[in-house]
Amino acid sequence: MSNNNIRKSLVASALFGAFALASTSVAANQLSEIHKVGQQNIRASVQSQEKINNIFDQSQELLAEYRQLVEQTENLKVYNNHVAKLVADQNVQLASFDKQIGTIEGTKQGIVPLMYRMVDTLEAFINADMPIDLTNRLARVDRLRAVLGNSAVNTSEMYRLVIEAYQIEKDLGTALVTYTDKLAVDGNEITVNYVYVGRVALLALSLDEKQAWMFNRATGQWQALGEEYVQSTRFAIRVAGKQAAPELLKLPVLAAE
Measured between alpha carbons, how far is 101 from 72 in angstroms, rounded to an integer? Predict the structure, then answer.
């Protein structure tokens, strides 16, 4: 090969090498740019995913809040319906109470005069009855009249006391009771022990236990008893005073006509 050819060949090789080096440098720059763009895209993707995740989380929270609000709304509807039913029922009860109050007022207007008549009847009955514990029974009537005129006592309590007094009078029909009081004998008052057996017999015994009397319903007077009844009257008083066991008593009883 000639020197010219060798020289041309070397120049061509140098040009090729320079071109190849330039091409490699360009390719490296392009790869670097591509890498940078890729990194940027990755970062952008990560940021976009984070945004998407945040949006998703927010949407889930909003959905949960929405569901909670829906549930609360339903609960409020149920509660409001319940309250509405209670209010309606209370209105019905109030109307009923108003009606009852009107009835009660009407009842009061009728029962108050009735109680006055009952007290008058009770007093008349006591005065017509055997004089059993007369002082206390008439005092009870006076207390009833005082109660009926007392504004601090309500009508129901007045009525209860009147009925209670009638019950006490009823119980006297089966009671065996003794008490001490005065008895008018021959124009003088003496202290005696009384005993009554239901409304069958009312007897009195002197404190020295030597004399006995019986109330005669037919005459309305006290009459002296014979010696044969003094012992039985004394025993009846002991039984009534819980000082002796009950047993058959021999008492004077007027025969029914």
Answer: 42
Neighbours of 127 (CB within 10 A): 12
End-to-end C-alpha distance for the chain, whole angstroms: 187
The rounded Cα 108 to chain-centroid distance in angstroms is 26
For the chain, give percent helix, strand, coil, nearest 5: 70, 15, 20
Token pair 């984070």 is found at 50
The residue ranges of every structural domain in the chain are 98-174, 175-257
* Short-list 144, 151, 196, CA closest to 167: 144
- Greater model confidence, 78 or 148: 148
Residues 6+ apart with CB under 8 A from 166: 118, 122
Q: In what order do the strands lie in the sheet with 176-185?
A: 176-185, 188-197, 201-206, 212-216, 221-224
Cα–Cα–Cα angle for 139, 238, 228, rounded to 5 degrees? 105
Calculate the alpha carbon distances from 63 to 48, 52, 59, 150 in Å. 22, 16, 6, 72
SS3 state at 201: strand
Give the model confidence (pLDDT) of 127-142 as tens digits: 988 888 888 999 999 9
Q: Torsion angle, CA of 109/110/113/119, rounded to 10 degrees?
A: -130
User: Is the model's pTM score more than 0.90?
Assistant: no
Tokens at residue 121, please? 């009847």
Beta strand residue intervals within 115-250, DSSP E? 176-185, 188-197, 201-206, 212-216, 221-224
Interval 27-50: pLDDT, tens? 556 667 666 766 777 776 777 777
Query: What are 232-251's pLDDT values in tens digits?
Result: 899 889 988 888 877 666 67
